[in-house]
């Protein structure tokens, strides 16, 4: 009887460690800056309460006036809290949000274990003129 109890206790601890907690919470909006006319760099903090083992983060950036145009990227692991978003339009304001998720128990809806931050303040990409001025051919370099 004692062995059965220990096996059940170990199984419940393993379930709590791997998944089955809840969605992370207190995830702040990302902060960012333009690094080129087509790229922005974003930073964010880990959730205050991860509530389990985190999956890699998903980041979505969109043009506010064209809400259906968005770019989604993922981090390589669950400890990376900085990412560069590319393929953006020059001189355009983007809003971005971060999604953090824990591993759900088998058979559970993964959305229940996902949290989305509020959108960031607008982050403007640099003007397209920087593409021209920084071109090696314009500067006489090959």
Automatic annotation (TrEMBL):
The keyword Signal applies. Keywords: Signal. Pfam families: fn3. The keyword Nuclease does not apply. Residues 26-128 form the Fibronectin type-III domain. It comes from the Eukaryota. Residues 1-20 form the signal peptide. This is Fibronectin type-III domain-containing protein. It comes from Taenia asiatica (Asian tapeworm).
């Amino acid at each position: 009887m004692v062995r059965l109890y220990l096996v059940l206790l170990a199984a419940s601890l393993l379930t709590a460690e791997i998944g089955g907690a809840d969605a992370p919470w207190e995830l702040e909006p990302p902060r960012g800056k333009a690094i080129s006319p087509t790229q922005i760099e974003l930073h964010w903090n880990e959730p205050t309460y991860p509530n389990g083992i985190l999956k890699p983060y998903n980041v979505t950036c969109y043009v506010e006036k064209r809400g259906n145009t968005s770019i989604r990227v993922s981090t390589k692991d669950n400890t990376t809290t900085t990412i560069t978003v590319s393929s953006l339009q020059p001189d355009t304001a983007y809003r971005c949000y971060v999604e953090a998720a824990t591993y759900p128990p088998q058979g559970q809806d993964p959305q229940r274990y996902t949290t989305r931050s509020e959108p960031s303040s607008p982050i403007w990409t640099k003007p397209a003129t920087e593409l021209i001025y920084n071109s090696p051919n314009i500067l006489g370099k090959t």
